[in-house]
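chain below, 221 aa
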Amino acid sequence: MTFGIDMIEAIKTVGLIGVFLVVFAESGLLIGFFLPGDSLLFTAGFLASQGFFSLPVLAIGCGLAAIIGDSVGYTFGRRVGRRLFEREDSALFKKKHLAAAEGFYEKHGAKTIVLARFVPIVRTFAPIVAGIGEMEYRKFVTYNIVGGLLWGVGVTIGGYVLGSVIPDVDKYLLPIIIVIIFVSLLPSVYHVLKDKEMRDGLIGMVRRVLHLSPATPGTGE
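prediction:
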């Protein structure tokens, strides 16, 4: 179970096409930022090791879905993306996610298209930001292919290899997925802790949730 979802049964239900669609959506559609990309790829790779999928078809399909998804996101960003900064927040869209991707892009440049593959939420918005910033398309395509293959194929094969070499790995699948999610979130956590404004906002939110009084200036409390 992952966040109340039995990932193995969910993947068996949606099949290859469903896996490809989720990877495509998370790679470049605004509505895809909440989808479980890393854990999905790893679990699908594990199922391939158990004979449920053909590894070559799964890995190549996931890689292509990731590449095509980013290309769609780039095109969307180039044509209408700038208007997103004027759009009101909604349940499926938060300007802070777009701003986070933009900050990531400004820091890492074109490498963002590769690095963002391994950062939840940012990977959905990164190609859109690249389109908004009018990155040269040839350069975008190069980084997109590299990132799509490293993530879509690499994580899938990782799940396959572990499923093949570790006896009864399905017993440890949940802890492994939790570790993958945790590692994926580390860059975002680091960014929050490094940014004073975001850090103070997080502390304030925690205090409100726990019903704690605000710290008194100069007391260190």
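The chain has a mean pLDDT of 76. Residues 11 and 18 are 7 Å apart (CA to CA).
thats it, cya
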